[in-house]
Amino acid sequence: MGTFTQGLILRSFEATGIAPLQPNVILQRFAKDTPEVSDSSTSSSSVYSGKDWLKIETLLRKVAKDEGSKELKKIKRSLHRISIQNSLLHHEIAGLEEILTTQKKHKKKRKPLKLEHHNDYYGGAEFYSPSRVEKARSDERTKQQNQRAEELRKAEMAK
Q1: Helical H runs in 2-129?
Q2: Which residue ranges does the record annotate as region Disordered (predicted)?
Q3: What confidence tier does 85 reach under pLDDT thresholds 50, 70, 90?
Q4: Which of 50, 85, 91, 104 is the most buried if burial means most Cβ atoms within 10 Å?
Q5: How far apart are CA 7 and CA 101, in angstroms?
């Protein structure tokens, strides 16, 4: 128990400002060395967003001389109405953007598969097996590859 000596205890009291009462010792540790960055409430050039209509209203109350005047009440109501319209329009825009992205995802160009019909096909419903659908898809792929190869061959011939 060599750590609890009288000298160490007295120095700890001095460091915290307890033994000789000095509250500034601790307060100096928390004091800011750099000047404060101006926040939005003290800065005269700051701009509030539409969501901060309550802050704008309190600022208006501070500036206005007569809080009971009709003009001030009219300005407050107009400010509140404009901020609500702004937030509603932002929500509407966000919803429309979401709908647009959803529609773009669904807009894939699709072509019907040209499946071979039976000889006795008369226009009614016809069911195809998975192997037959896969064969039609592979035929379509080879047809597209042949078209690309033909286009490349024509491009080479033109050079």
Answers
A1: 6-16, 24-30, 53-63, 70-106
A2: 126-159
A3: very high
A4: 50
A5: 72
What average pLDDT does the segment 86-111 reach?
A: 88
Are 1 and 51 members of one domain? no
List the one residue out of 22, 84, 25, 15 whose CA is nearest residue 52. Answer: 84
Q: Is residue 99 part of a domain?
A: yes
Measured between alpha carbons, how far is 88 from 35 in angstroms, rounded to an integer? 39
* Residue 59, domain member (yes or no): yes
User: Is the CB of residue 103 less than 8 Å from the CB of residue 95?
Assistant: no
Contact 60, 72 (CB under 8 A): yes
Grade residue 38 by pLDDT with cuts at 50, 70 and 90.
very low
pTM of the model: 0.38
Q: How many folded domains does the chain comprise?
A: 3
CB neighbours (10 Å) of residue 61?
Answer: 11
